Amino acid sequence: METLFNKNSHSKPLIIAGPCSIETPEQLDNTVQELVSQGINLIRGGVWKPRTRPGSFEGLGSIALPWIQEIKNKYTVKFAIEVASAQHVEEALAHEIDILWVGARSTVNPFTVQEIAESLKGVNIPVMIKNPVNPDLSLWIGAVERFQKIGIQDLAVIHRGFSNFRDQIHRNSPLWQIPIEFRTHFPDLMMINDPSHISGKRDLVPIIAQKALDLNFDGLIIESHCNPDQAWSDAAQQLTPKNLEFMLSQLKTRKVKFEAAEMLNQLAEIRSQIDQADHDLLEALHRRMQLVEKIGEYKSVGGMQYNWRAAKRWNVKVYGGNQNNSDTWWSLKENYEGETGSFTTYNNYKGETWTTHH
Length: 358
What we know:
Blueprint: E1 14-18, H1 25-37, E2 42-44, H2 65-75, E3 78-83, H3 86-94, E4 99-102, H4 104-107, H5 110-119, E5 127-130, H6 137-149, E6 155-159, H7 177-185, E7 190-193, H8 195-199, H9 205-214, E8 219-223, H10 241-250, H11 261-296, H12 308-314, E9 319-320, E10 330-338, E11 341-348, E12 353-357
Parallel strand pairs: 1-8, 2-3, 3-4, 4-5, 5-6, 6-7, 7-8
Antiparallel strand pairs: 9-10, 10-11, 11-12
């Protein structure tokens, strides 16, 4: 049986592209037309959009499914959408959707994954499974196993990054070590990277895409919109089809063949993990430096103004200056306000104490 997600049937990275959300028939048609002109025939589009908070655009829902059917017939493309319930699966199959994916907010819930998997029992359709929103490798592995158990064989996984409030660069932290580790459990599954959701901004998409290819990912799923600045959802991370075409033309893929391919592949995996560990270490050091800089805001060093109000509030003791100079080596001992003004008491490294009146 021919499968879409068969590593051996693809000589180059698999590319899936399309809008974050399907908004209007015209928007869908214009976007797909431009993508098809580039040779892209696997289209993605959001119908149901599970959002973190209410009030965000959550997709048009079933109304968009007939539009997809028209586009499929007009341009001879295959279409992928996200499903989050058995009801979604039923409607998608009724409208001849070609590929389904399970979103990150669904993967995190084993009950939801099981419901979707059971609704596909006996159905021959390709399924992609995104990593859970939180960095839990077991949840991702478990989701794949649930679909395998009910007989879905045409499976791929999508790495779309993980929620991380400390990450100020990415929308979702890539945490590359997790997909690398996942691949050791399922070496035959295609691993597709989603640089759009990792980046959160279009300028970063090419960098993430190239990193994924450098790590031997098998494909990319990228958000593309005919007019991204006017998109109803995730406008900042979507590329125009023309910009997508340019980006894809600039990406480099590694073509390496070895006699002992299996052994060297394992060595490559280990090296990738080492590289990622180095990257994580540098990020941790960068984060530490940011925290040190914040501490510096509460210190008086080299003529910087000290925030006494904050020190009093948090009972902060700060040291600065030169230990060989009693006039500069001091610590805040007490800071208070009286009827006749404000007073600050200091002590130096010799234990001497003095009070200043402001």
